[in-house]
Amino acid sequence: MNDSTAETKNWWQRLAGGLKRSSTALSAPLTDLITKRKLDPSTIAEIHDVLTRADLGLDTAGRIAAALGEGRYAAGISPEEVKAVVAAEIEKALTPVAQPLVVDATEKPFVILVAGVNGSGKTTTIGKLAAKFRTEGHTVMLAAGDTFRAAAIDQLKIWGERTGAPVIAREAGGDAAGLVFDAVRAAKDRSVDVLLVDTAGRLQNRTELMQELQKVVRVIKKIDPSAPHAVLLVLDATVGQNALSQVEIFRKAVGVTGLVMTKLDGTARGGILVALAAKFQVPVHFIGVGEGVDDLAPFSARDFAHAIAGIDS
């Protein structure tokens, strides 16, 4: 087995393990339903309810229930067949949004603004992305734009040391927009490839905090009208349905270009990613299933669909 194959297998094992709670929450009640009864209309209706409770969203739940019901009322269906149908429909829903984050080498720096509510895993995600970009040969700079929390600034500095990326930071309580302005200029002066900008975690229903985030974007545009080149929203999978309102509000405020979903290993609600894909069609770039630097990986529709359906890949 070569290194690449071993790495892929290793990630699959982490993904399948990380999604175990979501997979069990989805497959256990489905298996229970179909092994005891035939697939009559009332069973299909119950299957639809199970799928909806698994946070997959009404559209996907409806498609899976319809696919399971087609021509199978009398014959019944095995648990393996159910998993295959579930995986196929989830993959279909996710394929359009499974898009890599591409760094445009003609933009120097390629500015990535990272946003999200408190506790979503923003700063850790930035550190992991910095490590990934450095491994790919890019020069990276970090901007500690979460000036509200001294802990966030310290955390980013630690990631900077780990990844060999310089960090632009000030004392806690400083002006975030001013700091980000300085960081973009410094990154330009040093011809840095990628600038990752941390921002203060904010509740999506706090208008004044969202306005400050918009101010950060305006300040970036003063130096480079095409920036930020990517606006990543980091979502904590454990919040379930609340992720839908987060995407809606952050999109309106700062034009989110892509999603990163973290903490999939800590929840039975991983199906929310399917509902997000169906509702918003925003690209999903990365998913995280743990704290380690290798536990954040590019999003694959097929791998995710198989893992959440409980199929060995």
Tags for this model:
313 residues; Four Helix Bundle (Hemerythrin (Met), subunit A); alpha/beta; eight-stranded mixed sheet; 12 helices
What this model shows, in words?
By secondary structure, the chain is an alpha/beta fold. The protein folds into 2 domains: 3-97, SRP54, nucleotide-binding domain (Four Helix Bundle (Hemerythrin (Met), subunit A), Up-down Bundle), CATH 1.20.120; 110-300, Rossmann fold, CATH 3.40.50. 52% of the residues lie in helices and 12% in strands. It contains 12 helices and 8 strands. The chain has helices spanning 3-18, 20-36, 41-53, 58-69, 79-94, 122-135, 150-163, 176-189, 207-223, 242-254, 272-280, 301-309, and strands at residues 110-115, 140-143, 167-168, 194-198, 230-236, 258-262, 284-288, 296-298. The chain has an 8-stranded mixed β-sheet with strand order 3-2-4-1-5-6-7-8, sandwiched between helices. Strand 7 (284-288) and strand 8 (296-298) form a beta hairpin. Helix 3 (41-53) runs antiparallel to helix 4 (58-69). The chain is elongated, with a radius of gyration of 21 Å.
